[in-house]
Amino acid sequence: MLLFFTATGSSITGQIPLFDPAWTIFPDSEGGLEALMGLGFIILSVILLRLSKSRFVLWLVTGIYLFAILYFTLLTRHPMTEPVSLLKPFATVHNAVSWGDSGIIIINKTNLYALIANILLFLPAGFLIPKLWGKARHWYIAIPAGLFISAFIEVTQYLTKLGCFDVDDLITNTLGAAMGYLIYRLLLK
Predict the structure, then answer these.
(1) First to last CA, the chain
(2) Are 185 and 158 in contact (CB under 8 A)?
(3) What are the start-end ranges of the H helices in 71-103?
(4) How many CB atoms lie within 10 A of CB 178?
(5) Sign of the C-alpha dihedral, residues 183, 187, 188, 189?
(6) CA-to-CA distance for 18 and 30, rounded, in angstroms?
(7) DSSP per residue over 21-74, as a string?
(8) For residues 7-30, b (16+ Cβ closer than 10 Å) or e, as one string?
(9) Phi, psi (deg, nearest 5) at residue 81
(10) Which of 4, 20, 125, 156 maximizes the CB count within 10 A of its CB?
């Protein structure tokens, strides 16, 4: 599926297609099946890490996770003609849901699933970072490490033109890392 962002450089005006590989596996799902697959990976990872004390299992899960991050954020994307940045915080949330008299109204499922996918993509970082790096067993190290990894990916996407620098991705990825750290504290420590 092609997602269209309107952008020219860092200001929003013209149309530039962005290829989103998460929706190529099941193109009619609008991202729902990919979100479920991501959740399944997280649950399986937590179960494996909870039941096994093996470093091999930890590194296997980490390797699969790193490949997934590279795949979805860089490897399968087509370069754009110019770098794009989306700097308005919570624009994706605003385009995904709204508040009505009867509660939350879904405006755009694709944007909603993109938010969910960005959170799920960084959930494993929140529990793998403290498992791999002993000093990151504290929230004030693990969560900023997730933010740093997300910022690295966003800057790489911007510089290579293989995506756009999106402040909402930084927010949702960091939220995912924080939720993953909570899983670490509650289930994996």
Answers:
(1) 39
(2) no
(3) 91-96
(4) 19
(5) positive
(6) 15
(7) GGGTSSGGGTTHHHHHHHHHHHHHHHHHHHH---HHHHHHHHHHHHHHHHIIII
(8) beeeeeeeeeebbbbbbeeeeebb
(9) -75, -25
(10) 125
Instruction: Say if residues 99 and 123 touch (Cβ distance below 8 Å).
Output: no
Amino acid at 181: Y
CA separation, residue 144 to residues 125, 137, 140 (Å): 11, 12, 7
**DSSP string covering 139-166, please?**
HHHHHHHHHHHHHHHHHHHHHHTSSEEE
Task: Give the residue among 149, 126, 151, 122 at the shortest CA–CA distance from 139.
Answer: 126
Instruction: Specify whether the CB–CB gap between 62 and 127 falls below 8 A.
Output: no
Asked if 5 and 86 count as a contact pair (C-beta separation under 8 A), the reply is: yes
Tokens of 158: 């911007």
Digitized pLDDT (tens) for each residue of the chain, 189 residues in all: 334 343 334 334 334 444 454 444 555 555 666 677 788 889 999 898 888 889 999 999 999 999 988 888 888 888 999 999 999 999 989 999 998 888 888 888 888 888 888 999 999 999 999 999 888 899 999 999 999 999 999 999 999 999 899 999 999 999 999 999 999 999 887
What does pTM read for this prediction?
0.80
* Residue whose tokens read 């009619």: 28
Residue type, 39: L
